[in-house]
Amino acid sequence: MNSFVIRRIRSISAAALGAALVVGLGATSASASHFRASGPDFVVDGQVATWVVTTAWEANDADSFVGEGGTTEVLSIDSYADTPGEGTGTGVLLEVISEVVSDEPLYAQTVETFRGDLSSLGDGLYELYIDNCCRVDDIENSIAEDFSQWVRFSKTGSTYSVAPRLSVPIIYAPLSITGVTTLVSYAAPGAVSWSPVSDENYPYYGSGALPCSTFSGGALQVGAAHCTGGDVYTDIYTEGSYWAFKVQIADAAGRQSVAETLFRVESTPEPYIDRHVWLNGGARAQFWAYAPDVLVSSWVIECTNTSDAGDVVSGSATSLPITVNGFTGGEEYDCVASATNGAGTGSSDPGDYVITAPSLLLELQFSVGDFYAGKTAVVEGTGLDPYTDYSLVMFSDPLPLLEGETDGDGSFYEEVTVPEEACIPGRHELQLAGTAGDSPVTTSQWIEIDENCIVIEIRDSAWGDDELADTGAANAALPVGIAALITALGAALLIARRRGETTV
Fold first, then answer.
1. Using CA atoms in the order 7, 10, 12, 13, what is the torsion angle rounded to 10 degrees?
2. Cβ neighbours around 328 below 10 Å, total
C-alpha cells in the first residue's frame, strides 16, 4: 500500500464544471477550490493496466500525490465486501508515468497516470488503493483530514473485468446560499448501484451523507426542497462553508470504484483583475478577472481616467473576458472589477490595477484622385511598451513601409513616403502595429488604386468581401515588424487628417 500527498492547484475549467454539473447555479466563471477530488478511470488493455487519478486544488504550488515515478501496489482481496485498503500485497506495482498540471478558469487540476503489467497475477479479485490525501480544513460533514481512493477488478484467465467508470470526473460543485437545488450526476456506464461512503476515514454529518439532500440512482440533489426532520437549509449551509460527498459505484458483480466531490456554499466574491490585452489600437481592452473559491454569474469592469473623473469607461459580461470600449490613448485609467453571484456583489480595490491606454495614429496625407507613389503618411504611437518594435505594412503581399523602435516612454513619430513598388492595382490594407502590455496593438486603413497608381477609394473599414490585391491578406498575428508596416501605405485622407480605424 502506498500513500500520496496532494498537490495544491489554482483554478477548474468552466467546461469541466459544466460537464460535471447536470444542473448547477447558472454561473459561468470563477476560480479556485482548495480540495482534491477524483473520479474513477481504470482500464486494462491486454495485460497492461492504466489508472488515472484526477485531483484539484487552488494553486499549483504544493507537492504531487504519488509523484512521477512513484508506485502503488496491487492488493489481493477475498471479497468485494472486504474493507478497502486491507488486502494482501501481490508485489505487482503500477508506476506513475505522467503527471499533468493545468490551470483552468475555475480551479487547477492535476492528472496522474498509473500504469503497470498485470500478467503475473493469477485468477482472483484485486484492488488498487491509495490514501493519506490532504483535505481542506473545516469540512462541515467530516472531521477526517485524510481520504482514500480505490478501484476493484477481477481476473479470469486473460480476461479482466473492471469497475464502472464515471462519464465525467466530478471535481468541485457550488451550493446555493439561498437553497436553490444543485444536481450532480455520477453517471457511470455499467453501474447498477451507487452508495455514499461512510467509514472511519469519512464520518458524515449525523446518519446521512449531506443534510437537505436526496441521493438516488447516481443523482445527488442538494437544496432547501430536500430538507427533512425540521432542517432549515439556510441555517445549515452557511456562506463559504465546505461539504464533501464520496460515492462508491458498483457493477452487477460488485466491482467498485469511488469518487469524491467537494461542495462549497457560495459567498460574496472577492475579485481581482489578473490581466488585459489591448485591441483596436488601444481604444478597446479585454480583461480577465478572477474571484477565488466562488462561481460568478456576472462581471463588470469600470475604468476611471486618473486625471479626469468624468472619463469613465466600463463593460459587463457573464463570462470571461470582459470587453471595455472607449479608452483615450495616452491616458491613465484606474480599473476596478465587480463580481456578482447569489450571495452578493464584491469589488476589487481602487488603485490595484492602473493601466495606460496606448494610442496608434495613422494619418494619410493624400486623397482620392492623387497619384499614390510619393505621397506621405504620418504614423504616431504613445503608451506602448518602451523599446519595442513598431511597423507599418501594406497588405496584400506584406510590403514593409516602416520599421522602428519605441523610445523609453513607449512613443514614436514618423513620416513615411509611399515607394513606387507600392503601385499594385487593387484593394489594400495599411496596418500600423506596435506592442502594449506584451500584446499586439494595431490600427488600419484601406485603399484602392487603379492600374495608373491613382487612388480611387479610401476607407476606414474593410470591404465586406475582404478582397485584397494579390499581395496577400493581412494577418494581425504576424510579427510586429511585418504586421505594422501594412497600415501606413493604404489609407488615404481627404486633404485633412484621417484617423485610421483600428482592428483586432
1. -120
2. 16
Whole-model pTM: value is 0.65
**Cell output for 268:** 460574496
**How many Å apart are CA 403 and CA 391, to the nearest integer?**
4
Candidates 104, 30, 34, 95; CA nearest to 62 is 34
The pLDDT confidence band at residue 57, using thresholds 50, 70 and 90, is low
Report the chain's terminal Cα–Cα distance, integer Å: 55
Q: What share of the chain is helix, strand, coil (3-state, %, to 5)?
A: 5, 50, 45
pLDDT tens digits, residue range 24-44?
333 333 333 334 445 568 999
Q: Rounded CA gap, 503 and 96, in Å?
A: 47
Q: What is the largest CA-CA distance in the chain?
A: 93
For residue 114, how far is the Cα from the chain centroid? Answer: 26
Cα(66)–Cα(223) distance, rounded to whole angstroms?
36
- 216 contacts: CB under 8 Å, gap ≥ 6: none
**What integer is the mean pLDDT of 452-457?**
97
